[in-house]
Amino acid sequence: MSGKAIASSFGRNILDAWLPTYQFTEASSLGDTTSVLSQTGEFARLQASEAGTWCVDPASGEGVPPGTNSSAQCPQCPLPFSVADMPGGAVLCERALGLGAATRQQCQLRCGRGYQSAFPPEPLLCSVQRRRWESQPPQPHACQRPQFWQTLQTQAQFQLQLPPGKVCSADYSGLLLAFQVFLLDELTARGFCQIQVNMAGTPASIPVCDDSSVKVECLSRERLGVNITWKLQLADVPSASLPDLRDVEEALAGKYLAGRFADLIQSGTFQLHLDSKTFLADTSIRFLQGDRFGTSPRTQFGCLEGFGRVVTTSNASQDALGCGVTDCQKNEMGLQCDQDGQYRASQRDRTSGKAFCVDGEGRRLPWTESEAPLVDAQCLSMCRPLLGTGDPRLFRVKFHGYAYISVMRKFEKLPESKVIFNADVAVMVRSEVPGSEPSLMQCLAGCALDEACSFLTVSTAGSEVSCDFYVWASDNIACMTSDRSEDVLGTSQTTSFGSLQCQVKVRSREGDPLAVYLKKGQEFTITGQKRFEQTGFQSALSGMYSPVTFSASGASLTEVHLFCLLACDSDSCCDGFILLQVRGGPLLCGLLSSPDVLLCHVRDWRDPQANASCPGVTYDQDSRQVMLRLGGQEIGGLTPLEGTQDTLTSFQQVYLWKDSDMGSRPESMGCRRGMEPRPASPSETGCVGEPSFCQLAEVMDSEPLYFTCTLYPEAQVCDDILESSPKGCRLILPRRPSALYRKKVVLQDRVKNFYTRLPFQKLTGISIRNKVPMSDKSISNGFFECERLCDMDPCCTGFGFLNVSQFKGGEVTCLTLNSLGLQTCSEEYGGVWRIMDCGSPDTEVRTYPFGWYQKPDSQSDAPSFCPSVALPALEENVALDSWQSLALSAVIVDPSIRSFDVVHVSTAAMGNFSAARDRCLWECSRHQDCLVTTLQTQPGAVRCMFYADTQSCTHSLQAQNCRLLLHEEATYIYRKPNIPLPGLGTSPPSVPIATHGQLLGRSQAVQVGTSWKPVDQFLGVPYAAPPLGEKRFRAPEHLNWTGSWEATKPRARCWQPGIRMPTPPGVSEDCLYLNVFVPQNMAPNASVLVFFHNAAEGKGSGDQPAVDGSFLAAVGNLIVVTASYRTGIFGFLSSGSSELSGNWGLLDQVVALTWVQTHIRAFGGDPRRVTLAADRGGADVASIHLVNTRAANSRLFRRAVLMCSITLPATYVSPTDCQLQDSRCQQCPALHRARGMQHRCVMVDALCLTQPVKQLARKPG
Predict the structure, then answer these.
(1) Burial of 55 (0-12, 13-18, 19+ CB in 10 A)
(2) Among 259, 565, 580, 1081, which residue's CB has the most CB atoms within a 10 Å radius?
(3) How far apart are CA 653 and CA 587, in angstroms?
(4) 3-state secondary structure of 802
(5) Measured at the alpha carbon of residue 672, what is the angle toward residues 666 and 677, in degrees to the nearest 5?
């Protein structure tokens, strides 16, 4: 929800231009049922209505969907762990059955809307008399609301080589944690832990590494496997400035992060140096791509550690909804979880009452049991480091769901230049002497657990180590400036400094080495006389004084922040300060005294087309300098980094003294002397100053010093019922406001835009902004007012001026629209052929001026704060590849045709052209008469035209040429799939086969370049009888079929060596079929190509042949025949005798070629122009026909095209040689067993050319 916030310390009486608003929707009911309050004011647990019975949460009234049994009860057994209710759901029971001790309730868990059970459904049995669960009790947190994805990540794997002499063994594996830490340091140092994306127009760096980003394990004795996960936590990015996820995906997986890292690994230059040893990375790298690894990086959504993917199971698929409950929330032991759903470190046994600690996976640590209560900090301090010695960064513990938290990474070691050693420092928390090793880790862990500790010192005196814990107080900080100058920048007197250095003060110990560690993030929580808090606002209208600027090269943002804190803390008139840094330029600190109005909140809506900086920060193109208007002053002369004019500031925040006395401060202090007076009212600087944005203002009295005013655009949306009553309209706000005011509608005297009447009678999928009755006005005055209402609303893209409720006498109404949706029932050209439903007799739109009107093109682009609109999702996806895309040259434009329908799809309702195209194609696919869809982009809409099968044909002796007829030109032309192209006719192709009958085929269009060519397909045509039963291991036999043969689907392909068992679908011994592909409009006596090929497993589908000859037939204008033949043992098993003569696969090819010679004339082919073709193993077999005198004498083919493999004469085996090899095989037991036969040697590796192909012989040479 778009909004802007203003904080003001005055004024409740400027309400003349506002109307109070109270129309809001409460979510305390389920459907049409209403929750009932009990006498205590809470909701009764059991509710009932005509819809059924349900249980509710007594506090909130939120319930589960009603059940069908009106006699349902709540359970009489207590819920586990004495919880009062089931969050997100309820346990619903049938009436108790049985008598006495056998009385039981049968219950079930029902989750509310938006919730899902984390456990599989199972019956719940409650013993009424014993009040105990006989089955597993219901889990208190079983109903969970699936969360959105929590992370976006990409993952890479590579390997590190161990140096000579090093082996990755059990002893060596203890250093794997060291590798993880140092590899992460290396990635950070090389810039591989940050990505830069554009957030709300501002380039921002986002961290993508954490302590779990690097994992190292032993792959072998000589190699380490490294797994790197770059992970962006979506919760870290403010939703108001969330960048386009495509930009984030490109930043993660693109050339600047994962791609650059892949280049580094593949270059062979990536090395890790550890303890004077060098670990070289292999040059190969893999990236996770779904459930497998590949060579290119991919991104995927994921969940944080401990969360799992919530999967919805349907009959068709399993889809992941997002991230679900954690392991802690699903535990059955009653362990407590923290606010993030992770196991709390400290637990309490509900039975014994003893306290104990658990690790990050919920495992109980026996040595931590205690009669006294424990807190999380105590459990953490009980844990010992996993490594006793070595680099202190290796100290990792597993608590609160974090994987091996590095305590050291919470601290920064300060150099001596940032420390002042002073014996008089007083603001110290405590001192401590660790009792066990490693002492540094004890000190750091103690400070990490102590909220009062901001930094610490560690000193060593001999073998004794001691720690001093300090609070971050003003007395412990000293900031020193240098290079001071006084300048007049703009209209303000400004003090400038060239450098700033802030140091911490610690107590010195004589002669003892001292190290200072600063807890990260504590430098902004200084403790002094005043406590400051960040307001979220970025500017003030008045009250700024004593502005100070610092050079970017001489000061950091942290140091300037400390300077502001100390300056304001010591100034009795100071109530806060503004801290700002010009991007790539100087920093500014301005103190505030009684600032009246704070504005420009970080969560405010900003126009993405405008400057993303806060109003009051401008850039002068001539001087190339930034001008600031802050707190009633103007400061200029600030130079930003070149090329950052879109976002002029990298940091800008207002900090306020939380307990300020500005409301009671006497004027005698003179704190605001010389300052600009505050403006008259917050409305003048807020909503009134935002005429195009603000229509609603919410005022909250939630702070002791300020009122908070939140400004909203028009947030009203209405249902899509065409009526004059606004009862279907309601406000949509992010929260229920306490006091809301709407700006009074003041219409202009003149119409600003010229509205165009749409030539459509019906609009569906529209987004209605407002419904205004106009029956009390004249038609002309009502229309005039409707135009001005749309003028006033920047989100209005058009309006409907309608006479609705015709059955009740008619009511004139004005509907202002946010989207014009799907525009149907065109009034163009008076055509009668339609595919869209145009029956709406209850609404009059045909008589002028009634109708639908569109705002001019220049005004049609709605601001980004307008409510998002979209047409309802399609019922099924549109497969664009299955539609035939036609070129304009394939059609004829004839404006006289009338068999068409027109639809306009509003660009406001469809985010891109592809979505509008899919909508139009889907509408056409739903109607049998619609065969062609054309699309043309127009201002504000995509124009779709639907056509019946209209065409114009020219005829000749050779062929006929047909082209589609269109009413008008179009950029995109699509023809419905599986529909013959013009000239194909509507009847399926058929061919008479002599002595058999009629062969019935199908037609398909094949794209050749930019045009489409029709091809007739005759699939699964038998050329021999199925070789089954007694016909197995026999020569192919003739198949006698009569009548008609359905040749529209391919038949099974032949079994071949390598196919797995059991035999997959589409493979069978019944496979002696061929396919014929005949291009239409083909010249008579066409050439014929016979191609022998047995496809590999997985090729082809139910409707498509494994080898589709359509394209070759269309391009070559010839007939293509593909045929299967038997292979392996089914085609060439031979024992050298007449029982198993072999070569049946070769005979299959001969019979297929004979079939072609006999019947190809019926298809238009010339049997004298047959070419034999085969590839790979098929070429081995087919090449034998070149030396087969029988095949040559019968002229089965004239030419041969053999690809990839040809059988050489040396592989031919004569009958005598075959018998000789058979006898040798009999003498060799090993080969005998290898062939798998008990009494015969099977010759399958060579071709034994025996009967009946006796004519085959070796050719000389």
Answers:
(1) buried
(2) 580
(3) 12
(4) strand
(5) 120
Helices (H), 1160-1259: 1177-1182, 1189-1193, 1215-1227, 1229-1234
Residue 1190's pLDDT band, with cuts at 50, 70 and 90, is: low
Q: Quote the CA–CA distance of 1001 and 984 in Å, as a whole number.
A: 13
- Mapped onto helix, strand or coil, the DSSP state of residue 1191 is helix
- The helix (H) or strand (E) run that includes residue 287 is strand 286-289
* Placement of tokens 């639908």 in the chain: 852
One-letter amino acid of 66 = P
Amino acid identity of 887?
A
Integer Rg of the chain from CA: 41
Distance between CA atoms of residues 526 and 584, nearest Å: 27
Closest by CA position to 941, among listed 834, 824, 768: 824
The whole-angstrom separation of Cα 478 and Cα 476 is 7
Calculated CA dihedral for residues 579, 585, 586, 591, nearest 10 degrees: -20
Q: Which is nearest to 1170 in space by CA: 1079, 1083, 1085, 1075? A: 1085
| Spatial separation of the C-alpha atoms in residues 822 and 922, rounded to whole Å | 13
CB atoms within 10 A of CB 558: 11
Tokens matching residue 289: 């791509």
Q: Which of 56, 58, 61, 131 is nearest to 91 (CA)?
A: 56
Alpha-carbon gap, residue 1241 to 1183, rounded angstroms: 26
Query: Is pLDDT above 50 for 520?
Result: yes
φ and ψ at residue 611, rounded to 5 degrees: -65, 130
> For residue 500, what are its two tokens?
């700033």
What pLDDT score was predicted for residue 439? Answer: 65
Q: Which residues pair with 700 in a beta bridge?
A: 708
pLDDT above 90 covers what percent of the chain? Answer: 15
Q: Determine contact, residues 17/619, Cβ cutoff 8 Å.
A: no
Pair 672, 630: CB distance under 8 Å: no
The DSSP H or E segment spanning 184 is: helix 176-189
Find which of 229-233, 428-432, 601-605 is predicted with most confidence, using mean pLDDT: 229-233
**3-class DSSP assignment, residue 187:** helix
Structure tokens at 574: 């100071």
Q: How far apart are CA 1197 and CA 1150, in angstroms?
A: 10
**Dihedrals φ, ψ of 920, to 5°?**
-65, -45
pLDDT digits (tens, 9 = 90+) for 646-694: 677 888 899 998 888 887 788 777 786 656 554 444 434 566 666 667 8
Is 667 exposed, middle or buried, given 0-12, 13-18 or 19+ CB atoms closer than 10 A? exposed
Look up residue 399 and give its two tokens.
């608590």
In this predicted structure, what is the pLDDT of residue 783?
Answer: 94
Whether the Cβ atoms of residue 592 and residue 540 lie closer than 8 Å to each other:
yes
Cα dihedral 638, 641, 645, 648, rounded to 10, equals -60
Phi, psi of 557 (to 5 degrees): -65, -40
Burial class (CB in 10 A: 0-12, 13-18, 19+), 433: exposed
Please name the amino acid found at residue 78.
Answer: P
Q: How many CB atoms lie within 10 A of CB 454?
A: 24
Element (H, E) at 1006: strand 1002-1008
pTM, whole model, 2 decimals? 0.49
Going through 805-930 in order, the beta strands assigned E by DSSP cover: 811-819, 822-826, 851-854, 884-886, 891-893, 900-906
Lookup: tokens for 752: 């600003």
Check the CA dihedral 400-386-521-183 and report its sign. Answer: negative
Which strand (E) or helix (H) includes residue 253? helix 245-253
Pairwise CA distance, residues 285 & 32, whole Å: 58
Longest dimension (CA), the chain: 129
**b/e for 355-387, b at 16 or more Cβ within 10 A?**
bbbbebebeeeeebeeeeebebbbbbeebebeb
Q: Using CB atoms within 10 A of its CB, is residue 78 exposed (0-12), middle (13-18) or buried (19+)?
A: middle
| DSSP sequence for 882-901 | GSEEE-GGGEEE-TT---EE
